[in-house]
Amino acid sequence: MNRKSLSNLVGLLVLLSLVLGACAPQPAATQVAQPTEAPAQPTQAPAQPTEAPAQPTTPPAAAFEPLSLSAPDCDYGGLVKSIEALDEYTVRFTMCEPDPAFLSKIAFSSFAIQPREWLEQNGGGGEGSPLLERPIGTGPYVVKEWKRGDELVFEAFADYWGDDKAKTPTLVFRWSSEAAQRLLELQSGSIDAMDNPGPDDFDTINADASLQLINRPALNIFYVGMTNTYPPFDNEMVRQAIAMAIDRQRIVDNFYPEGSEVATHFSPCAIPNGCVGEEWYEFDPVKAKEMLAEAGYPDGFETELAYRDVVRGYLPQPGVVAQDIQAQLKENLNITIRINVMESGSFLDASDSGLLQGLHLLGWGADYPDQTNFLDYHFGGGSSKQFGDKFADLVDALKKAAALAGDELRKPFYETANNLIKKHVPMIPVAHGGSATAYKATVEGAHSSPLGNENFSVMSVPGQNTFVWMQNAEPISLYCADETDGESLRGCEQVTESLYRYEIGGTAVEPNLAEVCEANEDLTVWTCTLRKGVMFHDGSMLDANDVVFSLIIQWDQASPFHKGNTGAFSYWSGLWGAFLNATE
Length: 584
Description:
The protein is of the alpha+beta class. The protein is 25% helix and 19% strand.
């Protein structure tokens, strides 16, 4: 069908298509012509009649292509069966076993979400990658500048989606390994807050009206570790003898602040089922020496004790504690110890890799209040090589406990697990350390987190545009999928966010990037609905593929993006079991 429009003339042309055979018959249409100075040229009619010329349209957005990864079966040894995007805002996790602690785990900062495109662009990390120093998150702060060895500077993210928009435009992290130096700077006003005052400083801070001290619950453990693949620590009787030869009460009385206590079990008693089962060995140097002789070392032996000189809530004075243990084992068992002070990152890497051949000092602070965070991470099927070969009976008890919902149902398995830890002695639990944070009295929103994840977006000092925090050490990197130290994690938590989060100053979990994560009846399938309109720092918008990609590159050891800093990804294997496509 052809149509002419003449200036100032509206008319209808008779359709001759049937006679001419030009086209199939169609109903006639009319349209008012637009005024022109000259007759319009003939145009091809649209396929369907319209009353007005069709307007240009925006090309449709590319269809969302959901990303997923599944294990062929559960024989690989991990807890996760599949992670899949169901649509743009829905992610489903299918587990090999029921997982009652799913929400507490998924809230942890190691499982924070970054844009898929950013992760692909930066190759998953590796030396020199901006992923390690300038993460792209959805949090209230953005990394502005990191002056290695000096300070880490954050600035407020203007388009933050949440209610906790940063109250202070600029946040600065500084660090010092000396508690006295941190306190001096707080007293002088050059910083606004500090972590871990020294044991002797609690009274000083409480007596100063210009300061405030906020105690942190002792949800931690300091222990002396051994790797059972190196002699003589491959002998269980040797490990038991050392366990009885250290006066743990002496260490707590002399080197720990108020609120600390001797550990009777690996987990603090505040953790459900943390202290069920037998208590730890009593200090008995006579029996210890007899046992060491029976194990074949009547005259003792030589070894080393490795540690990092970084203050922790679980270990406020690492140097003097190391020297005290050195002296105790020499006196009680004639064990000659060389002390080896290592750089923090190198020490953690060697520990995770099972390369520390003597004794070592380490500890743990709760990430969430559940036995899986303490026992599974350290002794379960997905734990690192820190203590050497795993103990099959202990792994089995922990696996059975973790699959049950309800503390009473889990209790007998944790009794067994705690008794097996005492029998096998992969480490010696020494203390649950009391600690605190200290602030200027003028700081609003000050708090101390039992998990060590203080949220600085809610803190401010009236009239100040900058808030300065001083912690014990510099972060190792800010790609916290592949970090375990508290200084790195705290930095990441200001920038990146997970599907759930822990309440400010507490341990309860609440929705974050997800509006909700709901489980099926037997807790094997968790379905998470994401918030809409959440913007990353690079201007991209959160969707389900960002969630899936951020997590599967941790899970799948064969992924080209499974790199990070050291490549250990210890939290993934510790909390979710084995890696997919794992290689030695």
